[in-house]
Structures are given as structure tokens and as C-alpha cells.
Amino acid sequence: MKRYAIVFFALLLFFGCQSDNRNKITGNGLNVLFLTLDDMGYGTSGAEGCKVPDITPNIDALASQGILFTHGYVSVPMCGPSRAAMLSGRYPHCSGIMGHGVQPPDFWEEPLVKTPALSTYLHDFGYKTGAILKNGRCGNQTWDVKYQELPFGVGFHDRNPNSFYERTKAFIAASKETGKPFFLYANPIDPHRPWVNTQGEKNARQQWNSLHEYPAPNRSYTSNEVEIPECLPDLPDVRTNLVPYYEALHRGDECLGSILKALEESGEADNTIIVFLSDNGMATPAAKNTLYQHGVRTPVIIKLPGKIKTGVVDEKSVVCAIDLLPTILEALQLPAIKGIEGYSVYDVATGKKEKTDREYAFTSFDYWGDSKEKDFYPQRSIINKEFCYIWNPYVERFKGEKRIPLNWVDVIASSISENLKLAARTEFLRKRPVEEFYDLSNDPGCWNNLINDEQYADKIKEFKAYLKKEMMQTNDPERYYYNN
């Protein structure tokens, strides 16, 4: 009996040591702060050149302390699958998180290699992991702490700078008590709709949050102060409609500032890598939920004191949101995750390479609520700094009309009957052709479809080949239908 007891005790020691080894930090022990804003359109931060007064002072300061990639791209122009992609380093059709609702869809083809989400991977290496608000729909995430007051970001704390400060402060303090480095994924909901002082905000308060007013941003704007993205017409109604967007963006920036303040006060700022981006474009026509440039492009900021030079602006590189996971792991000196579609940009961020190796970004859209036909709008795109090619298979296979994420007619009602260009634009956004091609250098708002322009025939052929390559190599379920 004594001999069995000794053997049993030895086995306990063995497996205990195995567990300790698994949870022992083998990298450099840096902390990770992963920041996002929700529905922030590219080009609307001061760091990117936006002239709206005092719009994003905290984003601007963060960019000045690290490197700003001006040509970042999300995988999907919609929050859930976009966030799942950035947290997994995988395309949506590889992770199975292709929309909202039940995941993965019935038609999903399981990838040859299954990989963990960033939170799970870091947790297994001994990190304390935490999320404030949206955390994507990865099925294999691991959060020690998760703050999410109400769904859809409609709670009082979801847009409150003071709440972000207190939660960040508490999480960092708790991780320091354990002696563990931390991974904090913090996501102010602004400037996601409902925007500031709109009927939508009033309705959200009445339904979800009647006891508290949403905090007002400390800066208000007039219609003359806002900037109009290239995908929208510069009309009085459009300007008026965008005023609350910029006020919501400023409030979101205040929330980011509160998070960064808590980090600085903790004494951990110099021991923390920070990344920042938006999850998709602004919630307007020809932006969010579309594969046009204003739907998928985002600034990407990376800060790492002592490793990344300050004030660097990289306008040459193509960086994808799925590249952030492998970049973070390389910065932490942890083993890379094999089988993902993302590539580390650490050497570019630290100045060892001039630009990334990517020639383009692959983006996609599949469905909103679920994979049923009513919500199913499969689209694929290849985009870079100069051109954008879009394939819309839903046009031939399902229906010819697509829902627009904002009532476009209401916004431009005073002008549409008198402006043939706007009327044609509205009709085009509803009824897309099977293929689209845009010269972004001359048409950043994607108004002029050049798919049949012989001048661009060679470039169109090149981008079609890129798309086919991506779909075939990654087992995209849409590959069976692509014959262009």
C-alpha cells in the first residue's frame, strides 16, 4: 500500500509540473493592450489628417508614440466576424465565424488546422486575460474577467469614459496581484449607432437604460465643421446626419484616453505593447457592411516602448487585422501559431523591414443575422492602396437587391429627385453588378465602376487571379462558384 501511495504521489508531482510548465511565461512577459473603436470610418482621426477640430486627441497621441499604418484592412466589414478574425488571425471562412447568429453555418468546411484564439493562447502561457465589451464570436476564447453590461453596447457604462478608467484600473491591479502579465481587450462602443443625441439613442435608453443618461462628449460640432467621406455626397442633409457621428467618435476617443490613463498610472505602460484599429467602417451607405474601401479600411497603430520608433507613419504597407495576432506573439517572444492566415508585421513595425510583403488584402462578407437566404449576401474582394476588385455572387444565385445599412433615400430626400447622379448611385448600391473594379487613387469613394474599361483589363485580370488564389488556398466555400 505504501508503494502505491508513493507512485500516486509521484504522478501528482509529474502532472503538476506539466501544468506549471504550460502556464509558465516563456516569452518576455510583456503586457498586451488591444484597443478598438466600433464603426470608426478610416480618415476620420486627426492622426490620419482629419481636419475636424480636436476630434481624436488620444488616438493622435497614441499614433505619435508608435507606428501608424495608414492602409490597414479588416477581414469583414461587420463587427462580430471582424473581431473574431482579428482575435484568431484567421479568415472568417477558416474560423467558421462568418456572420452573426449561430456559428459556424451549415455549409462551413472545417479547416485542416484548428487554432486557438489569442486570449486562450495567452491564457495557456500564464496571462491574465480580460475583455471590456465586444469580444468577437470565437468559440475558443478564455477570459478571466469580462465586462459586458448589456447587449449591443446600449448600457450606461458602455460609452462612459469613467467606467473604462475604473474597469481598466481594477483589471490591471488584479493581474499585478497575481504576478501575471495581462492581456486586456478593451472596446469602447462609440461611434457605433445610436449616435449622440439622436432619436436612436433615445430609443435605446428607453428600452435598455432608462435610469441613466449617456455621458455627453465634451465637444460638440456644427455641420460646417464635419468632413464628408468620399463615398457620400456633400449635401446639407448628409452633413447634418454626420454631426452626431463625429460627436460619438470624440466620446469614443475620450474612452480610449481613460484606458490609457489607467495604464499609465499603473506603472505598466513601458512594459506593454498596444495595438489599435477599428472593427469596420462608418455606418453609412457604401461603407459598413460593404467591401468598398470605406467599409474595410482602417488605421492600425502599434506602440511598444524601446522597440518601435515614435511618430512613424507607414503609407507603403498593406496590413490586415489578422496580422495583429502573429505580430503580438512575435513581440512577446512566444511561439507562433501555425496554420493561420495572418502574417507578423513586427519587423516592419520595428524598422527592420521597409514594408510588409502583402500586395493586397482579401476581404469578404457572407451574412447578417444568420446564414438563411434572407440574410445571405456572399461577396469577396481584393483590395490594396491603388485598386479594389469586388465579386458579388449573390446577384446571380439569390437576388438582385441588397439592403443598405442606412435609409439613403431619407438622408438625401431633398436632392435625389433633382440629382440624376445621386439617383443612379442609390440604385447601384441596391442592385450591384456581379463584378466591380475601382481605381482608388482617382476614385476613393468607389463611384465609378471600371470593370468593363479596357484600359484596366490587365489589372483586373491580375486581381481576379489574386482572388482565385486566396479562395482556393484557404478552401473558401465560394470557390466552387468563381469562374471569372
TrEMBL record:
Any Pfam family from its record, for instance, is Sulfatase
Q: Which domain of life is it from?
A: Bacteria
**GO molecular function per UniProt:** hydrolase activity; transferase activity
Q: Which residues form the signal peptide?
A: 1-19
Listed A to Z, the keywords are: Hydrolase, Signal, Transferase
Q: Where in this chain does the record put each Sulfatase N-terminal domain? A: 31-333
Protein name as annotated: Sulfatase-like hydrolase/transferase
Q: Which organism is it from?
A: Maribellus comscasis
